[in-house]
Q: What sequence folds into this?
């Protein structure tokens, strides 16, 4: 049976044999605007798809394993983590890429060759999906007959009926977009029937079932989604594939190389997670045992006490990976945007740590184990391990100070009120640093309702107050003639049109005072922003 390291290497070797250059994972800090985190293997290749950059590889092919985070934003799996066995906030996506080189035929044939012929997935348990637009809903493009024909030939070669093994999907399941804008196109996914009998005939495909999961998505990139909602044809067609590495490991390892489907595969029952669980067991003195949703349900129950420790092991291991890889890529927990998503994730991990008896910072003690498993593939993690530990310790220590007090308050308040009001959720957020999803989790565990509308209203009011206060901040650094106050627009936009109020020369420096600016001024220990100002068609620093 292959280890996770061998499975990853086998994927990369296979595509190296097909003349792909192996490239490193991009940082989790996205290069494309509009993303919170790198959320797909294709993010780093967007300029090639758009024709802005020329691929440096001959032939124009690449393969890699990409660090991805799907938390917050368009693709968000945070709520499922721990409660099912195959969604994560952090995961690796194995991919092969063609930049205007091969297209559907090779992408589909090679996917089959790797999965069925080299790795040995049973063909009769595989279901391929193809794009079938729902024209009544305005889905773009046409039925993907070409992809259907290639899959059909492969299934027939194994004596299988393509009408059973190929499932149609509309824009929701078979048209891939990384965000609201950017390169996109129809896709074809491979799903695996994991039931003991393997005879579901495609009925569980795309039904959110852990008995039939998607392992590989082949995207045929041919459009760019524009900000006005239209689809522009790209100058060339490209291939973007993404295989869920942990899912592939789980199916191969949990079935003992496809010999035994009686045990349901779980990503957590692989050597991707096992070393972290071993370490957590030592640190906590508790044992991890794999848990599965009851037949017919999609998730393990949040209110089932007997499962709480297992869920905590999973959430902590998942969140630790997200936090460590992000911090190693320079994304730190903080108060806004992606930084706040990380802070929320860290606070969730700390809260789950309580279930395993941790009352002092413990996450940093898992970092060396993570480095042992992944430091070779992702050397940046090994290189920045001490920073990762420092940040985790600092953040955890500061949240620990308020967590217990907040939990006590939560129990006292809900015992009398029987529900969570918007005011109370806001107080927990504002005074005790409880992200709203942590409060929502506490409420769910106790079967309580939470007034989200009330909470959101108070959040909006607070934002408005902060905005008004910022506008009235006046900082005078120069001896100026104008009394006007420069409005700071940088919390909302990165560029804006402005009127020049005054120009003042002091020594070698030229100061241009405008009525508005997106550039943060140096103050309160923060460094200032830098950028371009364009006056009369000429840009200057
Ligand atoms: N971009 C596709 C996905 O993320 C395939 O890589 O699923």
A:
């Amino acid at each position: 049976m292959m280890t996770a390291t061998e499975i990853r290497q086998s994927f990369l070797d296979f595509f190296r044999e097909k003349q792909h250059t192996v490239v490193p994972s991009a940082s989790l800090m996205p290069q494309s605007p509009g993303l919170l985190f790198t959320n797909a293997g294709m993010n780093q290749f967007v300029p090639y798809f758009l024709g802005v950059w020329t691929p440096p590889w001959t032939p124009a092919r690449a393969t890699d394993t990409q660090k991805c985070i799907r938390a917050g934003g368009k693709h968000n799996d945070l709520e499922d983590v721990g409660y099912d066995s195959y969604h994560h906030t952090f995961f690796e996506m194995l991919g092969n890429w063609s930049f205007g080189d091969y297209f559907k035929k090779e992408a589909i044939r090679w996917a089959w060759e790797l999965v069925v012929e080299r790795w040995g997935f049973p063909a009769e348990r595989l279901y391929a999906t193809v794009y079938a637009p729902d024209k009544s809903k305005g889905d773009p493009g046409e039925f993907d007959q070409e992809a259907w024909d290639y899959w059909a030939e492969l299934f027939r070669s194994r004596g299988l009926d393509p009408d059973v093994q190929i499932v149609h999907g509309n824009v929701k399941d078979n048209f891939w977009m990384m965000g609201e804008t950017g390169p996109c196109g129809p896709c074809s996914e491979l799903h695996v029937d994991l039931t003991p009998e393997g005879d579901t005939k495609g009925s569980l495909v795309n039904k959110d079932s852990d008995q039939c999961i998607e392992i590989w998505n082949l995207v045929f990139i041919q459009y760019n989604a524009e900000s006005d909602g239209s689809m522009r044809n790209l100058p060339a067609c490209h291939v973007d594939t993404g295989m869920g590495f942990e899912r592939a490991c789980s199916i191969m390892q949990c079935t003992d190389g496809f010999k035994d489907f009686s045990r349901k595969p779980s990503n957590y029952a692989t050597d991707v997670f096992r070393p972290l669980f071993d370490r957590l067991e030592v640190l906590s003195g508790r044992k991890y045992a794999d848990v599965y949703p009851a037949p017919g349900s999609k998730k393990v129950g949040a209110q089932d006490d007997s499962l709480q420790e297992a869920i905590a092991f999973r959430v902590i291991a998942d969140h630790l990976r997200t936090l460590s890889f992000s911090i190693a890529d320079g994304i730190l927990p903080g108060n806004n945007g992606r930084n706040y998503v990380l802070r929320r994730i860290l606070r969730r991990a700390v809260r789950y740590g309580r279930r395993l008896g941790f009352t002092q910072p413990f996450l940093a003690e898992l970092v060396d184990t993570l480095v042992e498993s992944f430091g070779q593939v992702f050397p940046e993690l090994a290189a920045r391990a001490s920073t990762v530990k420092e940040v985790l310790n600092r953040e955890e220590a500061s949240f620990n100070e308020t967590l217990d007090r907040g939990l006590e308050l939560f129990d006292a308040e809900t015992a009398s009120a029987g529900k969570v009001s918007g005011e109370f959720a806001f107080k927990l957020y504002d005074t005790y640093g409880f992200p709203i999803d942590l409060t929502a989790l506490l409420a769910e565990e106790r079967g309580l309702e939470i007034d989200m509308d009330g909470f959101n209203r108070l959040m909006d009011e607070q934002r408005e107050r902060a905005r008004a206060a910022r506008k009235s901040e006046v900082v005078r650094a120069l001896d100026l003639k104008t009394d006007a106050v420069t409005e700071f627009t940088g919390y909302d936009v990165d560029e804006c049109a402005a009127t020049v109020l005054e120009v003042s020369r002091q020594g070698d420096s030229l100061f241009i005072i405008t009525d508005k600016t997106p550039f943060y001024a140096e103050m309160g220990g923060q460094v200032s922003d830098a950028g371009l100002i364009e006056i009369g068609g000429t840009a200057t620093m």
